[in-house]
Amino acid sequence: MVNDALSHAPLRAEVAAWLDEHLTGKFACLRFRGGPGDEEAWPALRKEWERELAAGGWTALGWPQACGGRGFSVAQQVVFAEEYARAGGPGRMGHIGEGLLGPTLIACGSEDQRRRFLPGILAGTQFWCQGYSEPGAGSDLANVRTRAVREADGSWRISGQKVWTSLALDSDWIFVLARTDMEAQGNRGLSFFLMPLEQPGVEIRPIRQMNGGSEFNEVFFDGARAAAADVVGEPSDGWRVAMTLLGFERGISTLGQQMQFARELAWVIEAARRNGAAHEPVIRQRLAQAWSGLRIMRHNALRMLSGADAGAQGAPRREALVYKYYWSNWHRELGQLAMDVLGAQANIVEADDEKRTRLQQVFLFSRADTIYAGTNEIQLNLMAERGLGMPKEPRGTL
């Protein structure tokens, strides 16, 4: 049971002690850095930190031991995620490879693919990004238009565009959902490819955001190559593989995410106490609601994970469908609360005022939370159709 995480005191102490010892020296500057909205912070050093974690045996904790992981239970993984976030462990450069692609290859990949790709992910020497969203296929992933055409030698030529690709400039490989059957409609006729980014026909363009950063990118494919051995599953089976991967997206990392949210809420409370906003009844009520909402989020996440106790093979239950909708709206409201607490000072940008700057970043980045990875409208449809079995929403033009 996930609730048993509270009883893993020796593991909790071991993780905390290791982080206290190793998140020092050249790595000390990484504490509490590199999360969403701050992923451009020291990417080279954070890659080195991935190798430090690997050397200590703290990567791929939930993977089966046969695949190089430690075979941790969900409860044990929760302990690590919480202690990592509590210690200020930096945003993981290897998250997409370790948390998403690795489990997907274990579940859906070939033995050859597992042999070639899992060791590099495990060692923190190979970094991945995700090629799903497109300009016309964001929340509606089944509408992807990137094309893949098979060559005479069995390889594939990929043409199209992906957008909002996190960390593409700092990645070695990308997994791409592309259409291989041009006659098929919707989620049929899609295939799941593994592609090196360092090759002719791939161009990466950073997207400058309103907070000044550019952690997201556009990736253009103009006849780029994917080897025949780098199709996961069968051709036209890409939707099943893609949905398997998305199931892992709402797994153990949610608890670490909540620790970051708790830290941000603490910053807001500190600012309210510092400038006197905490004495205003409405602000006090909203702070209390934010605190309560975070507690609800934690308990729902533990319930969501309680049925997924089979290591990397365990995907969350249907309760996971509510999670993204809940946290994204909570976080967006926290960003607005931060600005209301700061008052007129929220409109002033001063690089040397770190406390104000980080609250402004929370506000700016959280505006996108209810859009990326599925808009609110899409999330509500998923809950209704997949979770409750209600009739599908009519789709089509009027």
From TrEMBL:
<dbReference type="InterPro" id="IPR013786">
    <property type="entry name" value="AcylCoA_DH/ox_N"/>
</dbReference>
<dbReference type="InterPro" id="IPR052161">
    <property type="entry name" value="Mycobact_Acyl-CoA_DH"/>
</dbReference>
<dbReference type="InterPro" id="IPR009075">
    <property type="entry name" value="AcylCo_DH/oxidase_C"/>
</dbReference>
<keyword id="KW-0285">Flavoprotein</keyword>
<feature type="domain" description="Acyl-CoA dehydrogenase/oxidase N-terminal">
    <location>
        <begin position="12"/>
        <end position="124"/>
    </location>
</feature>
<dbReference type="InterPro" id="IPR036250">
    <property type="entry name" value="AcylCo_DH-like_C"/>
</dbReference>
<feature type="domain" description="Acyl-CoA dehydrogenase/oxidase C-terminal">
    <location>
        <begin position="237"/>
        <end position="387"/>
    </location>
</feature>
<dbReference type="InterPro" id="IPR009100">
    <property type="entry name" value="AcylCoA_DH/oxidase_NM_dom_sf"/>
</dbReference>
<keyword id="KW-0560">Oxidoreductase</keyword>
<feature type="domain" description="Acyl-CoA oxidase/dehydrogenase middle">
    <location>
        <begin position="129"/>
        <end position="222"/>
    </location>
</feature>
<dbReference type="Pfam" id="PF00441">
    <property type="entry name" value="Acyl-CoA_dh_1"/>
</dbReference>
<dbReference type="InterPro" id="IPR037069">
    <property type="entry name" value="AcylCoA_DH/ox_N_sf"/>
</dbReference>
<keyword id="KW-0274">FAD</keyword>
<dbReference type="Pfam" id="PF02770">
    <property type="entry name" value="Acyl-CoA_dh_M"/>
</dbReference>
<dbReference type="InterPro" id="IPR046373">
    <property type="entry name" value="Acyl-CoA_Oxase/DH_mid-dom_sf"/>
</dbReference>
<comment type="similarity">
    <text>Belongs to the acyl-CoA dehydrogenase family.</text>
</comment>
<protein>
    <submittedName>
        <fullName>Alkylation response protein AidB-like acyl-CoA dehydrogenase</fullName>
    </submittedName>
</protein>
<dbReference type="InterPro" id="IPR006091">
    <property type="entry name" value="Acyl-CoA_Oxase/DH_mid-dom"/>
</dbReference>
<dbReference type="Pfam" id="PF02771">
    <property type="entry name" value="Acyl-CoA_dh_N"/>
</dbReference>
